[in-house]
Amino acid sequence: MALINCPECNKQVSEHAQTCPNCGFQIERYFYQKAREAKQKEQQETWNKKIAEREKQKQLRIKKFKKHKIKYILISVVSLALVVALIVGSVFLYNKLQTQIAIASCESK
Ligand SMILES: [Zn+2]
Hints:
Blueprint: E1 3-5, E2 12-14, H1 27-67, H2 69-108
Antiparallel strand pairs: 1-2
This protein binds zinc ion.
């Protein structure tokens, strides 16, 4: 049987004692509440850590995005320009082809 010190009078009492035989302090309840508070604190800390980690990740993502923002914009602009060039080129080629067909049909007459 292990002995603990009473939190109130500091005398040694059994760890299984509900109350201190010396001063009547409610030891069991005291340690129960203490354990519960410690658990709650631990949960709170775990939660806080999780939130902090998530916030850190978010900040890192924003930082990363800001760092590559110009790159992203450039890629977008280049892609857009390529698409536009493709469309314009297709229309141009189509018109040229139509003209050649028209010329060919005129020449064959
Ligand atoms: Zn006591």
